Amino acid sequence: MGKTVTIAVQRRDRPDASDRWEEFEIPRESGLNITGCLQRIAAHPVTVEGTKTTPVSYDACCLEEVCGACTMVINGRVRQACSALVDELTEHSSGKITLEPMSKFPVVRDLVVNRQRMFDSLTRVRAWVPVDGYFDRGPGPQESQEAQEADYPLSRCMSCGCCLEACPQFTLTNDFLGAAAISQAVLFNSHPVATFESGKRNEALVAPGGIADCGNAQMCVKVCPKDIPLTDSIARAGRMATVHTIKNWLGR
Ligand code: SF4
Ligand code: SF4
Ligand code: FES
pTM surpassing 0.90? Predict the structure, then answer.
């Protein structure tokens, strides 16, 4: 491995501007991650050709793969910049790392995308526990140990968008909910405190852009950094949608 690493960044100045590539050479350091590379570029925004440029825009918050804000496409694979280590990324390559914004969300600038649609999808499936007050109503309903163990992995979703970036059915122009929101609908439908609103969530699952739009290509589960069993969630959502539809036919 050389003493430096080359970072090639796909850049865009404004949402409606065209893309261009710029390359930067960064000194290697032990434990250096992609967010660290972007910080070093910001401190010294000069390309490999010696041209002064603007710092690269990117999102970050927790810096420990919890918030999902730094999600981008690194060497062709969607993942978080804060947990992507330079040494691991260049172990079997020429030493150049490419950074691109996610392609399934509108680009705001450089590596920053607008992920609002993902949060709108969570609103569509009512991914929350509704409360009508904060007064003490005593202990809530019990949840079995088995149910807790089945559903806890679903609660690890950090709304990063990796599953949507990888999904062939989720495009910039359609209204597919995507795996993350479907999985959250399953989580809240299964929770004893939130299940009473499952009818409304199931309405969103059977509506246009819902579960029927999933092509079952299972790309989502392969890229989820939190190892959420999305294929299982999608199957559970399909069963919930079917029961909901039958109940509607029967008028219940
Ligand atoms: S199973 Fe395939 S089509 Fe369905 S959400 Fe996952 S990636 Fe998209
Ligand atoms: S399901 Fe996984 S890949 Fe999709 S948004 Fe949640 S954490 Fe990210
Ligand atoms: S900064 Fe939060 S996941 Fe990377």
Answer: yes
